[in-house]
């Protein structure tokens, strides 16, 4: 597979994955989870990775902010190999929203201040530009700032999660199954928010999802992964309209993605 | 009875005391609880262990040299570590190295501080003081250490989501593990704090009772008890602190990644 198969120019590329593999030891041998995957994600666009359960999607996205290390291959942020960057600095530049929104004890504002506390910086106040901007981007009402974060609904918590990831002005946003715990209308609202944030902030979004509808609404670039390998890759609209392989056609035809996403995984 | 003499205990008297174990076993059998075999076996083990320790202490007391005393303290530490290792269900990574070094440093420092500076007897290795005092300190620190290690292990497992969320938000390993470490530290101190709160009201502590029985003035025995409780608290706190300080790191890689 070519590195920038869809003709993305070097200027637009924010994060680049080159021949990445993940092999895990299991009793009696080893198993390949991600197999020689390459792709590039650009500024101001959403790259969505879809595929059946166990296809290695979540493992792959966790490599991008070094929550895990690849067994082989390289990942570049701009032109710097991520393995050479301080992982804490990398995670400030490449924010990640995990599948289940975990709320720390305290108010929504306390949660939004955490990234600053972690880097020993003065936490911004409720009326600071940072907090206002993050809350607005996540379409969260400022009235929520004083609310106990854990008392919020799933959809509201996911918005706090998003605001908390965006408050440090990351360059890349990773999303691992962001709608898996949400009902349909809430998931659709989140999809619209993500789409706008991606454009307005010129963020490079890389998202893993089972939710085909979310992919349809947000993806610019689509990667179909199966058994750790890229089976299809290209412009989302084109690929969804005209799948090239039988495997992807079958995946699109099966409503399994919907079942799995409402099951929470 | 004269105040400074203990009533000697002969085998017949011991036999009467052992009768109470037989009574406990009999009750177990009567109610078909099925624990009598284990009870008798455990009591027999207790008798044999104490007899062996008695003879060993006799020997160590007679030699009057630091080496056998230190070897005995080392053996006590080794046994307590082994017991802790088998008692824990979910062991933290590098359990023996982490807990072992923490006990040696924590208990060693507190024992020598206590024996040399607080009590201040000579010679420093006098087994009549060093062995029982170190025994109490090690035994209690072991309980604290077991709780700290076990709790850290379960907290790190249960809080996986929280820890990874913190890492994603830019936390380093220490910051991400802080709530788990804090809870484990609290848990390790609970039994010691409970004992302090109950001492003198619910139960008379063993060392104080022993000293009073062997003829020591109650005022002196009380002062010893207060001092040893302080030493135990210090040893539990330092040992648990060292375990947690070393322990949480083993759950992370150098790149602040939570291991599988």
Automatic annotation (TrEMBL), chain B:
<feature type="transmembrane region" description="Helical">
    <location>
        <begin position="226"/>
        <end position="245"/>
    </location>
</feature>
<dbReference type="InterPro" id="IPR005226">
    <property type="entry name" value="UPF0014_fam"/>
</dbReference>
<feature type="transmembrane region" description="Helical">
    <location>
        <begin position="67"/>
        <end position="86"/>
    </location>
</feature>
<feature type="transmembrane region" description="Helical">
    <location>
        <begin position="6"/>
        <end position="27"/>
    </location>
</feature>
<feature type="transmembrane region" description="Helical">
    <location>
        <begin position="39"/>
        <end position="61"/>
    </location>
</feature>
<keyword id="KW-0812">Transmembrane</keyword>
<comment type="similarity">
    <text>Belongs to the UPF0014 family.</text>
</comment>
<keyword id="KW-0472">Membrane</keyword>
<keyword id="KW-1133">Transmembrane helix</keyword>
<feature type="transmembrane region" description="Helical">
    <location>
        <begin position="98"/>
        <end position="123"/>
    </location>
</feature>
<feature type="transmembrane region" description="Helical">
    <location>
        <begin position="195"/>
        <end position="214"/>
    </location>
</feature>
<dbReference type="GO" id="GO:0005886">
    <property type="term" value="C:plasma membrane"/>
</dbReference>
<feature type="transmembrane region" description="Helical">
    <location>
        <begin position="129"/>
        <end position="149"/>
    </location>
</feature>
<protein>
    <submittedName>
        <fullName>Iron export ABC transporter permease subunit FetB</fullName>
    </submittedName>
</protein>
<dbReference type="Pfam" id="PF03649">
    <property type="entry name" value="UPF0014"/>
</dbReference>
